[in-house]
Amino acid sequence: MSAAGVASRRTAEELIAAGRVTVDGKVVKLGDKVDPSRQVVAVDGKPVVPQGREYFMLNKPKGYLSTVSDRFGRRTVMDLIPEAPAGTHPAGRLDVDVEGLLLLTNDGEFTAAMTHPSREVDKIYLVRVRGVPSHAELERLKSGIVLEDGLTAPAKARLVEKQDEESTVELTIHEGRKRQVKRMMARIRHPVVALKRIGFGPLRLGNLGRGEWRRLREAEVRACIAAARGPGGTDGARRG
User: Fold this and answer.
1) Do domains 9-47 and 122-200 have the same CATH topology?
2) Dihedral-angle region of residue 2 (phi above 0 means left; psi in -120 to 50 means alpha; beta otherwise)
3) Architecture of domain 55-118+202-227
4) Which one, out of 53, 114, 125, 153, has a CA that is 20 to 30 A from the CA of 91?
5) Architecture in CATH for domain 122-200
6) Which residues are identified as catalytic?
7) What is the pTM of this model?
8) What is the pLDDT of residue 234?
């Protein structure tokens, strides 16, 4: 089901456990073997149609939600990729006021591998802040910042540009806590003015224009899978 873009592996297991998945009309259990080329798999009575896996990189502009749909009719990143097949969804998210590199795919296993905290996949941001962080403040980011939900993992931080009242920091983290970058910078008393993600795992945004997208190359997908193996060395996603 994850290969068909219906659900991530974990969600698929929950659907099976709930008795909502059938094969040739019979309810299946976790561990049952299935040959999708010969048998009909269905969820809630609707056949699961295998489809090719696709992977997109988008330079998300501000003002778009990182979701498939919105009940209030607000713009979502799916509006920017009309060619995306059914089941395509963001692999992770960026806040509505954040721009930059966002991955989208119909491969649930790929999404789980790239976004699960245990995989420790790096995310690189350009962070424009008020003031100029001192060496000591940058070292605090590198050592970990105590937030309301605990100590952050060590980050990479370097000052890349400074002006009279604002400066830009390149910050690399591998966690995905809610509003993490903004909260980290606020804790060292340098509130975020603008935030842009320029890297995710081995991928870099490069010269992709704001609102533009492209399909990932096969070598890039393989590199992402390798990066998502995590500290345990296990493969976080499988191609097939």
Assistant:
1) no
2) alpha
3) 2-Layer Sandwich (3.30)
4) 153
5) 2-Layer Sandwich (3.30)
6) 95
7) 0.78
8) 45
Helix pair angle (218-227, 108-115), 10° resolution: 50
CA gap 89, 5 in Å, rounded:
9
Strand 156-162 versus strand 150-151 pairing type: unpaired
Please write the tens of the pLDDT for every residue from 46-88.
887 666 889 999 999 999 999 999 999 999 999 999 999 988 9
Partners of 239 in beta bridges? none
- Residues 29 and 136: beta-carbon distance below 8 Å: no
Q: Would you identify the CATH topology of the domain 9-47? A: 3.10.290
User: pLDDT by residue (tens digit) across 35-55?
Assistant: 766 788 888 888 876 668 899
Q: How do residues 122-149 score in pLDDT, each as one tens digit?
A: 999 999 999 999 999 999 999 999 999 9
- Which residue in the block uniquely carries the two structure tokens 């940058």? 138
The residue extents of the domains of the chain are 9-47, 55-118+202-227, 122-200
